[in-house]
Fold each of these.
Amino acid sequence: MSLINPLNNQPLGGQSQTSTQSAAPSKQATSATVQAAATQQTSTTGNPFLDAIRLPEEKSIPEASSQGLSQEDFFSLLSQQLSMQDPFKPVDNDQMIAQMAAFSTVDGISKLNDEIINLNAVMTSSQALQASGLVGQKVLIPSDTGYLSEEDSVLKGVVSTPEAIETIVVRIEDDKGQLITTFNIDGSQGGNIDVSWDGLDNKGEPMPSGIYSIKASGRIDGQSEDLVVSTYAHVTSVSLGTASTGSILNLRGIGGIKLGDVLAVSEV
């Protein structure tokens, strides 16, 4: 006679068999759970607060291999070459010395390039420091264009003549090329002759702020020729630039110019 479980109306003997069959998967599941917990324990502490403030685990990233040939690599290759050479045809001493000399030359050139780069950086910084002293002053630039403003109501420049000219005709033009006024200056001394415009047109009316050009001409050997004109500009700031360009002087109303292109410095 078999006993019946009053809860599920199943024989107790059958229940024992079923429990035995389900015990094995339960043990396997328990083992997997323990392994997962052990694995999780390696990355967490079980405390949410401590896990939140833990530093993230660093992943090892392999460093990129250098493509350059170092001195250690060269001597390693040289040692391999000596060990693998034919005993009956050894490497010539002159050839070995030439290889070592060539490597030393290449290594020296590489170090020299690094030193030159560092020297250029130092020279650029020094040049920028010197150029900063020009802020607020005026510089003579190789251009016949100047800027007239309320702060600088007089436009000044220099006319260069190849020889003495009795009379130099000066023309003032606006940024559109329209003639504003004309006047004459004495060029009998020749060379570099100062010229200035008071900012008034041919009717004596003051002109507005803007860009204007100074044109000059004179008679040389009986013919009228245009003369080279340079103008003064106000330096407002200095840009550091690069090793190739150098420091850049920012001029009021005109733009920038390289420090090496400045012809003269003046306080006028």
Amino acid sequence: MKFKLSNVFILHLTVFVWGFTAILGALITVNETHLTWYRVLIAFSSLYLWFKYKKINFSVNKEQFIKLFLTGGIVGLHWILFFGAIKASTVSVAMVCLSSLTLFTAVLEPLFSSKSVSKLEILVGFLIILGIYMIFKFETEYETGIIMGISSAFCASIFSIINAKQVKNRAATVITYYELIGAFCWISFYLLLTNGYTEAMILSKSDIIYLLILGVICTSVAYVAGVMVMKELSAFRVALITNLEPVYAIILALFIFGKDEQMTSGFYGGASIILATIFLYPIVKTRLEKRKLSKNLHP
């Protein structure tokens, strides 16, 4: 029981750290593309040192590398859009919009597999759309940030579905490592094409500290810790705790940025619908599956 409780605590701490990613995105002064470039560089470098220290074999064949490298482009775009959403609006808006990941996954996953869309997922999708509509209606000044946040969720949904298949054949940390390399290379190529290597990339002392925290602690360390405890916990509990990420981020943003993060009642109404739907989704889904299993066992 103590071991399980410690794993739950570590997962909560990991999700809290993931939520802190959004805070760092708001604090770092370079633009979202440069920010993401630095983040993935620091993250895959620290993961490489981790593999070497633990003597972990992280080699993959050519076909696997190409798949992960290409997926890395989507990961990089996701983070650019996510940090762009924060800079174009607020942490709260970006995090709530990112929560639409559940909606996109419910819609897109059947297209990538033989899975059919359930009535529960249709209801979840409808409620999330309702919540996003309310936010759009009351937070018109953040329209660009909202669009970027939703687009970020769309990208996250695509690479999450792809990774769900990849993780069956190799370690999640290895997948992350090569996707980070892919993200770094694709962003580097984009910066080269757009003459993005300018003085705007120069970092302040505070930026360097924040980026090291973001790249090492919030990306590499948090991800490794998260994967380790997820193996010991049920999928239901993991889903429930992971869904707290936007809640942690919004509370942190209100505490750190104060009035800059205070929104209209319409925003909080829409956000409440989205977050409640996402939080309750695994609970309802688990109960329905248990009921279905019980009927099959006792017709």
Amino acid sequence: MSELPSKPTKAPIHAVHRLHEYRKSLSTKPFGARGKKLVRCNLCLLGELFCTCKHRQYLNTNTSFMLIMYNDEVLKPTNSGRLIADLIPDTHAFLWTRTDTDTAMLALLSNPTYQPFLVFPQQYVENDQVVVEQITATSLTTEQGITKIPLLVMLDGSWREAIKMYRKSPYLQQMPVLSFAPETLATYALRKGSHDFQLGTAEVAAMALTAAQEPQNGLALSTWFDLFVESSLLGRNRRAKETLTPITEFINAFKQALKASHECAEK
């Protein structure tokens, strides 16, 4: 397999890393995740033997993300929202609160440079918000001919928590909704939703990138998620030896998808 272009550089510290450190500073005791005796990387939160940080690179993308994270979600090693920030340069992360809403978050949502889309299941939408299945150039162009940047807003928590965030946050009910019904079952083996159609945050983000006309970036995020899941399970001894797939296969799949993404962006 040929090497990746030399232009992309290893992704630096990102918004979720910074939010993780901030959330830890608010805690009076260490977060008690399962596998707490495992020695973890401080950035990816995977076991040090299965750290993926050296493979992390930003994608070439015209899409931005906002993660609104439910309280302890950013502390969980199984959180997949951080994978979005691993690959998407313009990713913003905020803690959700019911009353003391972050003013920087509200300012970003009202920034005329962006067109926010709430990525959320249509069946939970409670008002007359516009619902779309694709983000097209037309939906990003103003009457003055200005093209905005799509800002995909992800509610990062359990599905019950995400529904609560939506219902308790009027500002989330004032933007178009990007919704889709995946036909395949979730492969999220770490913290599976209560229904088969409920996917992990990174899986939904990968679908959202495809809906934003960036299918190669969607594939890159999907393979990055696969590598994350396998590395997590290996660190927790959740794979029987006879069922092991060499971790290099997941690394190579991500590198191939990353290469295809950069080649697509250069055309």
Amino acid sequence: MILEDFKFYKPCKLLQPYVRYYWVFKSNQPQNTLTFPIGCPQIIFHKQMPLYIPELNTTQDRVAISGQVNFPSHLYANGNVEMIVVVFHPHTMSMFLNLPTSLFYNQEVSGYSLENKKLNELAIRISDCEDNSVCINYIEKWLLSQIANNLSETSYNIKRMDAAIRQIYSFPQTTVTELSSITCLCKKQFERLFHSLVGMNPKEYARIARFQKALAQMQHQTGKEISQAQIAYTSGYSDQSHFIREFKKLSGYTPMSLLKVSAPYSDLFTNPV
């Protein structure tokens, strides 16, 4: 998928604490794309051909929930793709589905399997609508209706996790004990809440954040001489060998070999709208 083929939409002000952005992708060409863990769960609406993910041996449904993942994966389609994606902040999707995000870990789950009547109705409206700007409005109305029903304890916990997520973004090497202190929770409570809302444990999420920070640096150093040692240090890796080893696990490539096949792009640390 080429970035220029995407159209991005900014959420309304009330949803910005929960939704990073929406994107729409349309193409009548065959797709074969390698994707990396981005650190943000998503709800995906397909208006035409869904995508096949060989690493999971699954084809996304017309509405799919994509949870946190810790591995690179391919996306395949024969053509005629048209999809709308809601990209949440790492810790906010559960507020809209009334389910722990951890249930979707390393999975692509059919939205129809959740037995969520309003979500199913939304998927039908989107499928029948030709104007994607109108589809985004439908999605926002549904999201806002879910917020109205979940303003109490869930909202408070999301604010707690927001502080931890911001700390991880800035310093992925922050210990779990330090993160729990930031949220005014004991370590076990923090780990349990983080796992439920974010969808993976704090140490694993820090791996994704470090990887995405490294991608962001490579993205902005294109055409320049890239110092792997400097990227490793700035991204929070213990040393250069740690950086290369972890980068390969999460992308399938070493940092230098990735540069030969594609332009690095950090989904987590790039704001397209």
